[in-house]
Write a structure and sequence with these properties.
binds pyridoxal-5'-phosphate, alpha/beta, TIM Barrel, 8 strands
């Protein structure tokens, strides 16, 4: 078993310098395809932030690796009946709030339990049916509505998945749409874009958090 953490970090660094020497970029390793032993390999390589896309997997892996100071993220589609379970797991950041309705469902439960939760609003910038997220044209309004009506859900920025295509220009365009919205938001500080196949393009579009799975362990 071999991982490619150093190679991926070197590629992120190269893209970061090309974008701006002042940029700070966080790597969240998406561990959804991995066994605990593979997560630990990366952990021993120095990686501390990991992300899962299913509530059940987040629960089982975070409980199994409870003794390690790992920061867990949630990046998957949100089903309303899993919100309570997700809140109990206290992820560092939920990347995938996909509507005002979802945000309000969190708010109701968070308020009841006296908790707060950091989150990002997901933008469907490629407007693909298969993807969750809000329409780019509605995004700013929805973001501000959530900030106003959901005080226990702390919005810190945006998440987006690049267009599902080999066409680099199309992918870039989809990231630029999210970047433009991000730049208009007051106090937003996290722009979560870029996966194994497109993180360099995302960094060139201002991403400051990349979510990488398969490129780390093949
Ligand atoms: C799986 C997943 C990733 C990582 O994908 P790779 O192509 O394996 O790097 C990133 N973000 C989300 C939302 C995912 O579901």
């Amino acid at each position: 078993m071999a991982h490619h953490l150093q190679e991926v970090i070197a590629r992120i660094e190269k893209a970061r310098i090309a974008y701006s020497r002042h940029q700070v970029i966080k790597l969240v390793a998406i561990s959804k395809y991995w066994q605990d032993s593979q997560i630990l390999e990366l952990y021993h390589g120095g990686q501390r932030a990991f992300g899962e896309n299913k509530v059940q997997d987040l629960k089982s892996k975070s409980e199994l690796l409870d003794e390690y100071p790992i920061q867990w993220h949630f990046v998957g589609n949100i089903q309303e009946n899993k919100i309570n379970a997700l809140i109990q797991l206290k992820p560092a950041l939920i990347h995938s709030i996909d509507s005002l309705r979802t945000a309000q469902a969190f708010q109701m439960r968070l308020e009841r339990e006296g908790k707060v939760q950091k989150a990002l609003l997901q933008i469907n910038s490629s407007r693909e049916e298969s993807k969750s997220g809000v329409d780019p044209q509605m995004a700013k309004e929805i973001y501000l509505q959530i900030q106003e009506s959901c005080p226990n859900l702390i919005l810190e920025g945006l998440m987006s998945i690049g267009a599902h295509t080999q066409d680099q220009k199309e992918i870039q365009k989809s990231f630029e749409i999210t970047q433009k919205i991000y730049e208009t938001l007051p106090n937003a500080k996290v722009l979560s874009m870029g996966m194994s196949g497109d993180f360099e393009i995302a960094i060139a579009c201002g991403a400051n958090l990349v979510r990488i799975g398969s490129a780390l362990i093949e």
